[in-house]
Structure to design on (372 residues):
């Protein structure tokens, strides 16, 4: 039986994060993971519940991709996003889940190389840690 | 308002672990404002516990609810069915909310999800500081509107003390001396004569030291006749 691919959810801001992902996708790069992207207006819009819900619904790893912090379209949106990510990482640690499963990244829309790097890193983490609860991936 | 803080998640997880059906109940009043037990915090806690259960393979029914004010029986009554159908209620309100549920349903378990802390005010986003201890005998009209009981580390009625230096408190140099602030405020209000007035020892009998305090407003209480009428309507 073929090895199941890790499930990764990425929250990308519509300004830089999503553009970086689209640019990378146009290059035809294939990933060894099932990546589901959620476009958000700004990473500052992301709330802790969105990140936790992704894990609750089966994600092995979750990342947030926003604008570069000094070049955020909404000025401080990606800083807000990072704060939320850090808060949820703390919550995950407290309930015994590896905080590495959640990461925040920043990229400019022209960074076509950034997105594959992020997915590779999260895939590596998801493979190393396995699914939460150790069950079969869907 | 009452300011509270969520208990560490591992402590909460340990409390709820033995129970099959757990209802987490938040409150939309003070604890929602201080970001400890409002709708968002309840949802996040339930979600985090579900992820933990998933990891540990534990079967547990978790549900999150929020009431308008958990310290008032009328609001709690609205979710009575949910409370009675749970093995455990985890209150994400202040201790008043948790105790209200406990008093209403004494044969049901209600555990606290928050540590209730202070009577505080929001100083800036995400920062709350204590400004009242509920001593039951307010004197801030004589101290420029600043409470020395809560804001002075020694709760001094006549200050500043000898430990005040460069506007800071000797107890902790991060704390502003309350009595320096009182002096500044009285000066601004042209009422500096008050700082020289010696305040006698405080009557602490109105404070917590006498045990549980109850405040009654006779004209607001219902008569037996009114109570019967209200019960008949319900």
């Amino acid at each position: 039986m073929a090895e199941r691919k890790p499930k990764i959810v990425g929250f990308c801001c519509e300004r830089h994060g999503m553009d970086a992902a689209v640019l990378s996708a146009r290059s035809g790069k294939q990933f060894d993971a099932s990546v589901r992207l959620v476009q958000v207006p700004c990473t500052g819009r992301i709330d802790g519940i969105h990140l936790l819900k992704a894990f609750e619904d089966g994600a092995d790893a979750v990342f947030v991709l926003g604008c570069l912090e000094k070049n955020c379209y909404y000025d401080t949106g990606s800083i807000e996003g990072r704060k939320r990510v850090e808060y949820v990482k703390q919550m995950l640690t407290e309930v015994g889940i590896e905080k590495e499963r959640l990461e925040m990244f920043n990229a400019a829309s022209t960074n076509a190389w950034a997105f594959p790097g992020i997915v590779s890193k999260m895939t590596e983490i998801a493979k190393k840690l396995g699914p939460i609860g150790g069950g079969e991936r869907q | 308002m009452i300011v509270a803080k969520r208990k560490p998640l591992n402590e909460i997880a340990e409390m709820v672990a033995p129970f099959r059906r757990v209802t987490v109940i938040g409150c939309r009043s003070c604890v929602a404002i201080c970001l400890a037990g409002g709708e968002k915090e309840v949802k996040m806690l339930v979600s985090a516990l579900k992820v933990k259960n998933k990891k540990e393979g534990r079967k547990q029914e978790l549900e999150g609810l929020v009431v308008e004010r958990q310290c008032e029986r009328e609001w709690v009554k609205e979710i009575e069915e949910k409370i009675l159908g749970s093995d455990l209620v985890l209150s994400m309100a202040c201790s008043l909310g948790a105790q209200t549920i406990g008093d209403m349903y004494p044969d049901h378990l209600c555990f606290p999800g928050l540590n209730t802390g202070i009577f505080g005010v929001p100083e800036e986003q995400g920062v709350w500081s204590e400004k009242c201890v509920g001593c039951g005998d307010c004197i801030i009209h004589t101290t420029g509107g600043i409470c020395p009981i809560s804001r002075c580390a020694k709760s001094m009625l006549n200050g500043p003390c000898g430990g005040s230096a460069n506007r800071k408190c000797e107890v902790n140099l991060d704390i502003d001396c309350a009595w320096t602030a009182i002096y500044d405020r009285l000066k601004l209000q042209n009422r500096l004569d008050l700082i020289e007035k010696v305040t006698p020892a405080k009557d602490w009998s109105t404070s917590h030291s006498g045990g549980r305090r109850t405040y009654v407003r006779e004209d607001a209480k219902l008569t037996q006749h009114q109570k019967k009428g209200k019960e008949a309507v319900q």
Remarks:
- The CA atoms of residues 94 and 117 of chain A lie 28 Å apart.
- The first strand of chain A starts at residue 7 and ends at 13.
- Chain A has one domain: 7-129.
